Amino acid sequence: MSSDRLHRRSLLRALAAIGGLVVSGCDRLASEPRFRSVLDTANNLTYKVQRLFIGADRLAPEYGEDDISPAFRANGSTDPQDQEYLNLVGSHFADWRLKVHGLVEHELSLSLDELRALPARTQITRHDCVEGWSCIGKWTGVPLAEILSRAGVGPEARFVVFHCADTLDDGGEPGADPESIRYYESIDLIDAAHPQTILAYDMNGGPLTVRHGAPLRLRLERQLGYKMAKYIMRIELVQRLADLHGGRGGYWEDRGYEWYAGI
Ligand SMILES: Nc1nc2c(c(=O)[nH]1)N[C@H]1C(S)=C(S)[C@@H](COP(=O)(O)O)O[C@H]1N2
Ligand SMILES: [Mo]
Questions:
Q1: CA–CA distance, 120 with 252 (Å, rounded to integer)
Q2: Interval between CA 163 and ligand 2 midpoint (Å)
Q3: Ligand 1 center to residue 33 CA distance, Å?
Q4: Residue closest by Cα to atom 15 of ligand 1
Q5: How far apart, in whole angstroms, are the C-alpha atoms of residue 98 and residue 110?
Q6: Disulfide check for 223: which of 114, 142, 210, 227 has CB 3.0–4.6 Å away?
Q7: What tens-digit pLDDT sequence spans the chain (263 residues)?
Q8: What angle do CA 243, 145, 166 make, to 5 degrees?
C-alpha cells in the first residue's frame, strides 16, 4: 500500500471514529423518529468522506488484454445447489429472466437475449477480494444505468438491491428459510449510474460460467469483490435497506462487513 493510501485510510478511520462519537452522543435522541434521518447521516460519515476523496465519476483503472489473469480465482458460492438455480442451469438459462421491480415506473422482465441486444460495455479491470487477493478479468455487459433508465427510477428510490440465486454452504441455522439467507447486495444510485457499473454476462470473451456467477453478475469496479453480486435473479429499487434480511444491505454486511467497501 502506498503511503498516500495509508494516510488516506488512517484519516478515514479517524473521521469514522468522530462519526461514532456523534452517534453515541445521540443515543437518547435516536429513539425519536424525527432525529432518525440526521443519525443516518452520521452513520454514513465514512462513506461520505470516501465519496469526497473518490469523486462520483472517477473511473477505476482499466488494463490491457495482456494483463488478464490466466486463472481468475472464484470465491464464495461457486456451484449453487439451490433447486431453482439448478433448474435454470439445466435449461441453459433459457427460462431465466432478470426481474427489475420495487420503486420503478415500469417493472421489467428481461431474458439473456434481450440483455445482449442492449448497448454493451467491455472493461478489463482488477477484482480485489477483501481476503487479500486480486485478479484481472475482462467483462462485457449492460450498464446498470441503461436498465434503470428503461425501468424509470421512482422519486423515492435510494438504493439498488441485487437478489441472488445462491445460499452459501454455511448459510445459517438448520431449517432456516432459504430465501432469508440468500446472497444479496445493495449500492446507492451514484454507483448505479457510474459508467463502469455493469451487469456482466461475458467474462474474458465467453459467457459467464457458473463459477463466476452465470448468467449475470454485477461489476462495480470501485468497491471490493463481495459487493459484486453473482447469480442475479432480480433487482429491486428501495428507499431503505433496513427492511431487507439483516437490515445492513448485504449478506456480508449483515455479518459485519462495511456496506461501502470503497477501494
Ligand atoms: N451471489 C454471490 N455473489 C458473490 C459471492 C457469493 O458467494 N455469492 N461472493 C462474493 C465475493 S466475496 C467475491 S470476492 C466475488 C468473487 O467472484 P468470482 O467468484 O468471480 O471471483 O463474488 C462476490 N459475489
Ligand atoms: Mo471476496
A1: 29
A2: 17
A3: 36
A4: 225
A5: 5
A6: 227
A7: 444 444 444 434 433 433 333 333 333 333 444 443 444 555 566 777 777 776 767 899 999 999 999 999 999 999 999 999 999 999 999 999 999 999 999 999 999 999 999 999 999 999 999 999 999 999 999 999 999 999 999 999 999 999 999 998 655 566 677 677 899 999 999 999 999 999 999 999 999 999 999 999 999 999 999 999 999 999 999 999 999 999 999 999 999 999 999 98
A8: 50
DSSP bridge partners of 187: 160
Residue 225's closest CA among 80, 25, 74, 111? 74
- Classify residue 158 by burial, with Cβ atoms within 10 Å: 0-12, 13-18, 19+: middle
Instruction: Tell me the CA–centroid distance for residue 144 and ligand 2, in Å.
Output: 21
Burial class (CB in 10 A: 0-12, 13-18, 19+), 232: buried
Cα-based angle 13, 16, 21 (whole degrees, multiple of 5): 130
Structural domains for the chain: 60-250 (3.90.420.10)
| Helix and strand element counts for the chain (H, E) | 9, 10
**Closest residue by Cα to residue 166 from 99, 89, 234, 79:** 79
Global confidence as pTM: 0.83
